[in-house]
């Protein structure tokens, strides 16, 4: 098939399904068709094909795209038209995929359900009354609904893996520093990572191959050699040592989710891997530490939205202070305000030691928990989330319950490690996600383990 046919199929599928799913904030049909025509022509002239040649892709709307609005699903950036491409977008262009449009998310990536989007609530394609997860809910829903071949998401505390689990697709959060954050609108800079959302593990390997690598534009970018991820998908996990943290299968886990994880372990046994129960004793402090650290960083990062430089500017300010406060009051939604207040408080003089510094120390303990396990095990396996996708509206007014849902994903961001979520079963017609966690920069082993299970 030609690239133009692929792209038109994607656009048709969006037209047919997105009225219900509402994954897209902005579809760039014209731009996509132009790129498709150019790629077809290039191939006709005997040109080489890039790694992702012709594949229709969706981009989470916190990744900047030149000439294509990037809103972060926030009123504040409703009309923000970036003048440059994120490094990952440049890399996708080199790999020759075709950007179809921008995908919905929780405002500024704060949330786990897409209910915090200022514009629309994306639906779970498996059951339209349920959330797709978040914050990369649009990315996961678009891939699950077959609207695009793959999508990019971002993961600060689970935002790629949790929606992937809820929508029955594959989501990979790379090691912190492996993928450039240049052009990713910052939420919590020490935790944010961009990664692929795909239908299967092989596709995830191809997309990661295309976007990973050192970038001088990101001061936290790691200067490491990028292995051939695709060739690591050998299907062989004989002798692989898997640790299963008892903290991830304890209180609050849905019995069906637990059953699916136990069934998956049987599959691994059958493939010749060995598993043992392990302990990550500081897990219970991870959510508290994360919400202090992520909110602190967010309060600092979001200070740039002052009504002067970006987006919303209030119409009725009489002086500079009013310009700031009214623009921010009008531009940000309730969850973003909650985080800014929490973070500002945690960083304020007199409270810094009790909250921010304490949370940093907990972060170190959590990282050490993982280091110890990885002295003896190749990967860690558990559920991605304690429950399948919840109903829209069911917990949005209970932020603590919402936060506690991230218990299995947050520790991985605090430790900076790579982790993947892959589908491993269903309950009541909703998908269940299995999470595999690896050593820093050992995406190859994570992908190999995930691929062997598929
Ligand atoms: N649900 C988490 C939060 O609300 C994670 C978000 C993310 O990874 N961007 O912060």
From TrEMBL:
<dbReference type="InterPro" id="IPR004412">
    <property type="entry name" value="GatA"/>
</dbReference>
<dbReference type="InterPro" id="IPR000120">
    <property type="entry name" value="Amidase"/>
</dbReference>
<keyword id="KW-0648">Protein biosynthesis</keyword>
<dbReference type="InterPro" id="IPR036928">
    <property type="entry name" value="AS_sf"/>
</dbReference>
<comment type="function">
    <text>Allows the formation of correctly charged Gln-tRNA(Gln) through the transamidation of misacylated Glu-tRNA(Gln) in organisms which lack glutaminyl-tRNA synthetase. The reaction takes place in the presence of glutamine and ATP through an activated gamma-phospho-Glu-tRNA(Gln).</text>
</comment>
<feature type="active site" description="Charge relay system">
    <location>
        <position position="60"/>
    </location>
</feature>
<protein>
    <recommendedName>
        <fullName>Glutamyl-tRNA(Gln) amidotransferase subunit A</fullName>
        <ecNumber>6.3.5.7</ecNumber>
    </recommendedName>
</protein>
<dbReference type="Pfam" id="PF01425">
    <property type="entry name" value="Amidase"/>
</dbReference>
<keyword id="KW-0067">ATP-binding</keyword>
<keyword id="KW-0547">Nucleotide-binding</keyword>
<comment type="similarity">
    <text>Belongs to the amidase family. GatA subfamily.</text>
</comment>
<feature type="active site" description="Charge relay system">
    <location>
        <position position="135"/>
    </location>
</feature>
<comment type="subunit">
    <text>Heterotrimer of A, B and C subunits.</text>
</comment>
<feature type="active site" description="Acyl-ester intermediate">
    <location>
        <position position="159"/>
    </location>
</feature>
<dbReference type="InterPro" id="IPR023631">
    <property type="entry name" value="Amidase_dom"/>
</dbReference>
<feature type="domain" description="Amidase">
    <location>
        <begin position="5"/>
        <end position="447"/>
    </location>
</feature>
<dbReference type="InterPro" id="IPR020556">
    <property type="entry name" value="Amidase_CS"/>
</dbReference>
<keyword id="KW-0436">Ligase</keyword>
């Amino acid at each position: 098939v030609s690239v133009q046919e692929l792209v038109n199929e994607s656009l048709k599928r969006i037209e047919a399904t997105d009225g219900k799913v509402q994954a897209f904030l902005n579809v760039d049909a014209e731009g996509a068709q132009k790129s498709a025509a150019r790629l077809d022509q290039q191939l006709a002239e005997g040109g080489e094909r890039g790694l992702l040649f012709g594949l229709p892709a969706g981009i989470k709307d916190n990744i900047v795209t030149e000439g294509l609005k990037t809103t972060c699903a926030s009123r504040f950036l409703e009309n923000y038209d970036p003048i440059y491409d994120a490094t990952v977008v440049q890399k996708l262009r080199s790999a020759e995929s075709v950007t179809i449009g921008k995908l919905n998310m929780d405002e500024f990536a704060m949330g786990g359900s897409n209910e915090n989007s200022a514009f629309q609530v994306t639906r779970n394609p498996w059951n339209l009354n349920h959330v797709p997860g978040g914050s990369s809910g649009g990315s996961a829903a678009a891939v699950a609904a077959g609207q695009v071949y793959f999508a990019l998401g971002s993961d600060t505390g689970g935002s790629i893996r949790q929606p992937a689990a809820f929508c029955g697709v594959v989501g990979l959060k790379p090691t912190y520093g492996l993928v450039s954050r240049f052009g990713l609108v910052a939420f919590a800079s020490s935790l944010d990572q961009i990664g692929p959302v795909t239908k299967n593990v092989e596709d995830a390997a191809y997309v990661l191959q295309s976007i990973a690598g050192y970038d001088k534009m990101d001061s936290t970018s790691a200067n490491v050699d990028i292995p051939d991820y695709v060739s690591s998908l050998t299907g062989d996990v004989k002798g692989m040592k898997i640790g299963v943290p008892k903290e991830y299968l304890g209180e609050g886990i849905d019995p069906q989710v637990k059953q699916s994880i136990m069934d998956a372990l049987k599959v691994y046994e059958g493939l010749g891997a060995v598993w043992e129960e392990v302990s990550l004793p500081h897990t219970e402090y991870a959510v508290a530490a994360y919400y202090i650290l992520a909110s602190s960083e967010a309060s600092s990062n979001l200070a740039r939205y002052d009504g002067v430089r970006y987006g919303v500017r209030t119409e009725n300010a009489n002086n500079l202070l009013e310009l700031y406060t009214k623009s921010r009051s009008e531009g940000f939604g309730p969850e973003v305000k909650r985080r800014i207040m929490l973070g500002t408080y945690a960083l304020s003089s007199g409270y810094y030691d009790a909250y921010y510094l304490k949370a940093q120390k907990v972060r170190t303990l959590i990282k050490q928990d993982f280091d110890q396990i990885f002295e003896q095990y190749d990967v860690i396996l558990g559920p991605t989330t304690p429950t399948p996708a919840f109903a829209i509206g069911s917990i949005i007014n209970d932020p603590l319950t919402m936060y506690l849902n991230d218990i299995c994903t947050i520790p991985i961001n605090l430790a900076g490690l790579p982790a993947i979520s892959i589908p491993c079963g269903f309950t009541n017609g909703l998908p269940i996600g299995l999470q595999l966690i690896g050593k820093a920069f050992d995406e190859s082993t994570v992908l190999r383990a995930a691929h062997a299970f598929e």
